[in-house]
Task: structure prediction
Amino acid sequence: MSRATTRRNVHFLDGENNEILGFWQNGSVSWGQIAEWMHIAITLPSVQYAVFRCLESGNPENPATNHGPSVNLSGNNNAVDRGYYVVLSANGEPLDIPITEERAIPRSVSYNLSNPDPRLASFRQRVRERDNCCVVTGVRVPPGDYDSFEAAHIFPVAHLDLWRSGQWSQRIEDDFHDVGDSKIHSVQNGILLAQHAHTYFDKYKIAINPDDNYKVTCFVDDCWGFDGRYMVRSGYPQHYQPLRSLLKYHFRMAVLCNMKARGPEYDWDEDIPPGMDPVAEISNSEEGKLRFELVMAERLNPLTE
Result:
């Protein structure tokens, strides 16, 4: 028997009583959404497995035998109850449940630079003008006061190489004259967020699903009231709106990061005091080399445009 160490209130076990998936239910996640998330996380076709509610009180000891009837997933809008569930074959027999080896691309919280590249400055200004509020919380920007609001890249600048290999620029319809060859600084790759929402977005703690009417899901215990909101969309033309496929990609990464058994893979402490060098601070932390590479890429990639 194994259990994830990350904090959760919904647990999915296999027939051998090992936790294979899980998440934190704040109240908005339905079984229909779980069907989508399992399609991302489990490599078996969905017709080969089913979910059953564990009947034992508390942490189960024999989930493969002590369970209720299977839960109907597809199209089920009922909220998932907190507790333990077991994933078995469609007829209730123990089944090896292979979990995808795909991992969320690592990203760290992006900090506003004091002297940004002209394209970054243009990106920030265009996102501000289009959204004029935090698109997650709906809090509007006081006239001219953006101190608590930040223009966030949906696809991180630190992964410009993946942006190029994924040919994302071909999906950008933005016709602005100065978005660069890669188009990673297009307004379609940006949303305006309050500072705390930006941190959660960069750490995959919240994500926006364009296939669910742009609903916001919070994957951790939600102290800010993000979960179940809907993204605020401006009246700008479609070719200046956040690109659906980019939001969908970020949502997929959030599911991979939070749903798999071991929980978030890149949950680093971002509390770096003002005046300290972020590179020096993170290079001495856990997984410092990876974080160092991310920060350096974020700083240097705009120069390669």
Q: What stands out?
A: The radius of gyration is 21 Å. The CA atoms of residues 199 and 290 lie 18 Å apart. Residues 288-297 have pLDDT under 50 and may be disordered.
